[in-house]
Amino acid sequence: MLVVSEEVCREVVGRDDAFTAVENVFAAMAKGDAYNFPVIREAIGYADALYGFKSGFDRQGLALGLKSGGYWPGNIDKGLTNHQSTVFLFDPDTGQLRALVGGNYLTAVRTAAASAVSISHLARKDSKVLGMVGAGHQAAFQLRAAAEQRDFERVVAWNLHAEMLESLRGVADDLGLPFDVVEREKLGAEADVIITITSAHEALLMKEWIKPGTHLACMGTDTKGKQELDPALIAAAKVFTDEVAQSITIGECQHAIAENLILEKDIVPIGAVINGTEGGRMSAEEITIFDGTGVGLQDLAVASVAAGLAESLGKAQRISL
Ligand code: NAD
User: Fold this and answer.
1) Ligand 1 atom nearest to CA at 83
2) Pocket test for ligand 1, best of 199, 206, 297 (most atoms within 8 A of CB)
3) What confidence score (pLDDT) does residue 6 get?
4) Mean per-residue pLDDT for 50-61?
């Protein structure tokens, strides 16, 4: 069995690797070659923690396994990241444990890859202004991955906790992109592509603030009760997702569905756009939304890449059970 540490994952898995792995697995899901098992997520009644599993099987990429982990709010005081996860990969031919892979960096890089895939397939080619809503741990990864998809000239950003925006400004500086902190209405009026990546439980962006032709990658809502967008905005847009079942239950579309503003059949799996069986953006005026809920197969895809690269580069530890 291989053990691939967080540090080695960071060394070997780049944004390009994650993009390709996530794009391929979304495509495999839409073809019915890969599927996610039901998600388990529980408040364990200890340390205020939320703990669970995301799992699945990709017959095309031969990735079988699970990501186990969750959210420990007290970790920050211990100098640890609040979100903790580990990926277990199994040999689909024998069921034997093939690899244990650190999941923290991979979660960030695969989540950023998902919104980057959506920008690549759905944003207008002439998009120039990138809007960032959120400035936490994931936001920096999101900004770096998005910046590679279009010739952005500027970043406009908003965060509830304004002081957190300075570290995101550092990322923009590093990318050579001017960075302006703005109010949400202005962000909507200026941005061609918007990424939302917050823990909000109410709409942060209203329909009337968003200009025609915008693409939104809505990445923060991954649990029942969370929300980032006005449901009327969802209803006015063409909506895509990683997995429809998650979108309507734990993703951003849960609210528009509950209010009967959209139907499940209105939501297009992005894999179908990647495969060419469904159209993507139909006009320069259309608003497109990607509801990125985060699926276990993304984790398995990037963890498989990490295990393969770490093994071939001699950076994985090998142990016997
Ligand atoms: P973080 O704790 O580092 O940052 C949280 C962010 O949300 C900060 O910008 C904070 O200012 C903002 N925020 C907190 N409460 C808010 C509120 N009430 N209203 C508006 N903004 C608020 O978290 P993170 O690791 O950056 O994750 C951000 C979100 O993304 C979380 O909800 C997390 O569960 C989600 N996430 C989704 C995926 C996915 O695949 N879709 C993957 C990882 C994380």
Assistant:
1) 25
2) 199
3) 97
4) 95
Strand intervals (E) in the chain? 2-4, 34-36, 40-43, 50-58, 63-71, 83-90, 97-102, 129-133, 154-158, 179-181, 193-196, 201-205, 215-218, 227-229, 238-241, 267-269, 288-291, 317-318
- With both helix axes pointing from N to C terminus, report the angle between 137-147 and 15-31 in degrees, rounded to the nearest 10: 90
Catalytic positions, please? 67
**Cα(286) to centroid of ligand 1, in Å?**
27
CA of 111 from ligand 1 middle (Å) equals 12
Domains of the chain are 2-107+297-318 (3.30.1780.10), 122-294 (3.40.50.720)
Tell me phi and psi for residue 96, to 5 degrees: -75, 145
CA-based nearest residue to 143, from 117, 111, 176, 168: 168
The CA 95 to ligand 1 mean position distance, Å, reads 35
127 Cα to the center of ligand 1, angstroms: 25
Residue 90: its pLDDT value, please? Answer: 98
Per-residue pLDDT, 25 = 97
Q: Which helix (H) or strand (E) holds 247?
A: helix 244-249
Q: Which atom of ligand 1 is nearest to the CA of 292?
A: 41
For residue 80, the cross-strand partners are: none
For the chain, give the mean pLDDT.
97
Q: Is the pTM of this model over 0.90?
A: yes
The answer to whether residue 321 scores a pLDDT higher than 90 is: no
Pocket of ligand 1 (CB under 6 A): 83, 107, 111, 134-139, 159-161, 164, 197-201, 204, 219-220, 222, 226, 292-294
